Inverse folding.
């Protein structure tokens, strides 16, 4: 019987594409996490919080989002919090990366199928060096998170004591680097009590940025260092990240400078820190040092834009990704200037990359519009802008909210859970769909190119 089940399992795995296996893998981790969080031992009260709440929390943790329907700091027990941080680490680094490290440490041979899964998981172009790169992901994450925890310990240990302060330091370092945004401070307060604390702002923002850049980019920063010698991907990701951070910082500083509910009562250095942190956190991090619900309308809209763009490919963050956004902008710019090619850093961006970028954005917009419509039906008492913000936060795996998440109906919780899941794995499923369509096109057309057709545009 066991042999027959093993044969069926191997046959099932053999027929699945790497993208499909990643989807099944993430879904399985979420389900296991939800089961553990449903147990009475997972809640501080000793009573189960219900499967829907557990499923939502597990999805938010694995998809490194940070949206919560119950307060993380007060609702969950130590066991529940440990489960959540493990789910965050698995979701941030990718379950295939961690599985590969387990296989390597156990001395298991990494097969071609395993390498294909790793390639899809870490967003690499080729199979060459995928295992070595996975080792880099694991060890660099451990080092960066440990350094971040040691810096945070300078504040948390004096405030909470040695044991609790150390636990808080590592929990928030992992949550920050994985761009998850879960916190243990209670009452949905996030980092508002540290709005003008330089050490906390510096450590958390640094971890968020490093996690959001992507492991390929941090590898270039460590090994190559000189910008002009880096890969085109690293150059584009660093440039777009820097531009968005600067623009966000300047605009948030202007929009919230005199807002008494956010930055108005802070000192000038405090306003600078709050504006910078608010520019960093929509990059799929989810922490906030000021009240998101009290932001001015321009700041809310700017936050929505930054959440939709998100982090860089191959990172712990979500969104349509910085490089996708850059390719779209450069393509539009080349059309407006009458140029035939899209060029960046003296390199031509090829047609397939442009088509994939456009597809990612279009599919992302379609998902966002669909989920906005669903939430308009399930949450009739919520305002339109609140729902739009919530959906964009879920799709971008950001975790910021204006206060709607804890009030969601069961239907709303399920819809947002699906949005977080699709947002975390969206680029992978898009790439899979494109590769399948290209394969069918080759099979149907062969080596012949069909006649061109003219369509009026604009």
């Amino acid at each position: 019987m066991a042999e027959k089940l093993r044969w069926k399992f191997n046959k099932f795995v053999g027929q699945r594409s790497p993208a499909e296996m990643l989807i099944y893998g993430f879904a399985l981790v979420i389900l296991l996490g939800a089961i553990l969080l449903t147990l009475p031992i997972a809640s501080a009260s000793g009573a189960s919080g219900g499967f829907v709440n557990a499923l939502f929390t597990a999805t938010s943790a694995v998809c490194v989002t940070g949206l919560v329907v119950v307060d993380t700091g007060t609702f969950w027990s130590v066991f529940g919090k440990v489960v959540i941080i493990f789910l965050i680490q698995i979701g941030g680094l990718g379950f295939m990366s961690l599985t590969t490290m387990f296989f390597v440490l156990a001395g298991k041979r990494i097969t071609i199928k395993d390498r294909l899964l790793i390639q899809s998981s870490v967003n690499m172009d080729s199979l060459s060096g995928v295992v070595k790169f996975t080792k880099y992901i694991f060890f660099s994450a451990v080092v960066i998170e440990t350094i971040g925890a040691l810096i945070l310990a300078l504040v948390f240990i004096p405030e909470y004591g040695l044991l609790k302060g150390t636990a808080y330091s590592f929990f928030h370092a992992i949550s920050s680097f994985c761009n998850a945004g879960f916190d243990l401070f209670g009452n949905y307060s996030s980092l508002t009590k540290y709005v003008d604390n330089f050490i906390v702002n510096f450590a958390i923002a640094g971890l968020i940025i490093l996690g959001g850049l992507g492991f390929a980019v941090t590898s270039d920063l460590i090994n190559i260092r000189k910008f002009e010698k880096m890969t085109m991907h690293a150059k584009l990701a660093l440039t777009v990240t820097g531009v968005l951070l600067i623009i966000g910082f300047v605009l948030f500083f202007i929009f919230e400078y005199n807002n008494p509910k956010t930055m108005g009562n802070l000192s000038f250095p405090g306003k600078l820190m709050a504006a910078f942190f608010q520019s960093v956190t929509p990059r799929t991090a989810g922490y906030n040092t000021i009240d998101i619900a009290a932001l001015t309308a321009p700041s809310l809209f700017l936050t929505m834009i930054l959440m939709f763009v998100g982090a860089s490919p191959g990172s712990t963050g979500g969104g349509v990704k910085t490089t996708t956004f850059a390719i779209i902008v450069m393509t539009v710019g080349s059309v407006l200037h009458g140029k035939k090619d899209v060029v960046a850093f003296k390199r031509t961006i090829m047609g397939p990359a442009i088509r994939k970028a456009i597809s990612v954005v279009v599919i992302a917009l379609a998902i966002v519009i669909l989920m906005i419509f669903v939430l308009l039906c399930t949450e009739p008492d919520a305002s339109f802008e609140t729902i739009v913000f919530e959906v964009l936060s879920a799709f971008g795996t950001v975790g910021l909210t204006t206060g709607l998440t804890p009030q969601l109906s069961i239907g709303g919780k399920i819809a947002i859970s699906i949005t977080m899941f699709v947002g975390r794995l969206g680029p992978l499923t898009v790439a899979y769909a494109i590769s399948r369509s290209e394969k069918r096109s080759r099979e149907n057309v062969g080596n012949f190119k069909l006649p061109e057709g003219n369509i009026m545009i604009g």
User: Anything to note?
Assistant: The chain has one domain: 16-290+301-438. Residues 16-290+301-438 form one domain.
